[in-house]
Amino acid sequence: MSTINKNIKSNMHRILLSLLMSYATLYIHDVQAADAAVSAAPYFESGQDPKPLAKVWRPVVNLSDEFNDKSIDLTKWQTNPVENGWVWLGRAPGLFDPSAINVDNGKLQVTVSKLPEAKVINNKTYLYQGAIIRSINPGQVGWYYETRMKANQTEMSSTFWLMSKNSNCKTKHELDIQENVGRVSPNAEKWAQNFDHIFHSNAFHRVTSCQKRIQKENSIDLDEKNSDRYFVYGAWWKSSTEVRFYLDGKYAYSITPPTEFNVPMWIQMAIETYDWNPVPKDGGLIASGTWQQRTTQYDWVRVWQLEDETYSP
């Protein structure tokens, strides 16, 4: 009888173990499926997705990144400010320096700081460092661009935007999806007093030999600072004459570009200084802030294109 009981207990243990393993497998599968569902389409609240009938969003893989690797993916992103036809080192006194860039805990991070000593480059004096990350591949009209970003808390910026290369003096376009600062400095311009709690976008043609600067902009004030939490900033470059902007998955406003935005543009994530929000003489939080205060974090960048919906018989 004792031997029978032992066999029954042994069988029960095997059955229980098998059930637990099956449950664990199903749980992992469900979690993976849920994770996949999060990035299966752009981040929209219910009823906010503007896609046309019989169309679906498909990811543009070479412009999308969850930042889950141990380092930045250099097949997708450029960290050197002067490369691939780009020549901007940053607006003095803020220098773009790749050493400010890091990928950790599933985030792309840019940490601003005061330089150990001033650097003079091309007769410009740089006192602080930020960085710029640009996409290797260009985006196209008709695509949707979004990022989940938490701004730094300093006098420097946190941004997400697109820009064309100046192959034609009539097509030097810039599309700012989001532009803010972490802290409004004491000497900031009056019109910039809300730039640490704002969803602000621009569409403009930069100055060229044959075109003056023309700018269109729109914005909404926020009830909390851009550095308080992660926000999802998005824009549907719907056509050459219309761009629709979304905040946390909800439609915010549209901009009609000043000229037709009909050429490819590259993603830009620049953490920079502005002359309209000058850094205090003591360096402000750029010099004295904690790592958390000085760091802009991008949880992900995702780009989507519309394709015809297909049905299985």
What does this entry look like structurally?
It is a single chain. The protein is mostly beta strands and 313 residues long. The chain folds into 2 domains: 1-38; 42-308, Jelly Rolls. Helices cover 13% and strands 40% of the residues. The protein is built from 2 helices and 17 strands. The chain has helices at residues 2-38, 284-288; strands spanning 55-59, 77-78, 94-96, 101-104, 107-111, 113-121, 124-139, 144-150, 157-163, 173-181, 198-205, 214-221, 231-239, 242-247, 250-255, 265-271, 295-308. Strands 2, 3, 6, 7, 9, 10, 11, 12 and 16 form a 9-stranded mixed sheet that branches. A hairpin with a 2-residue loop joins strand 14 (242-247) and strand 15. The longest helix has 37 residues, at 2-38. The radius of gyration is 24 Å and the shape is globular. 35% of the residues are buried. Mean pLDDT is 90; it is low at 19-38.
Question: Which features does this protein show?
Answer:
313 residues, mainly beta, 2 domains, 8-stranded antiparallel β-sheet, 2 helices, 17 strands, globular
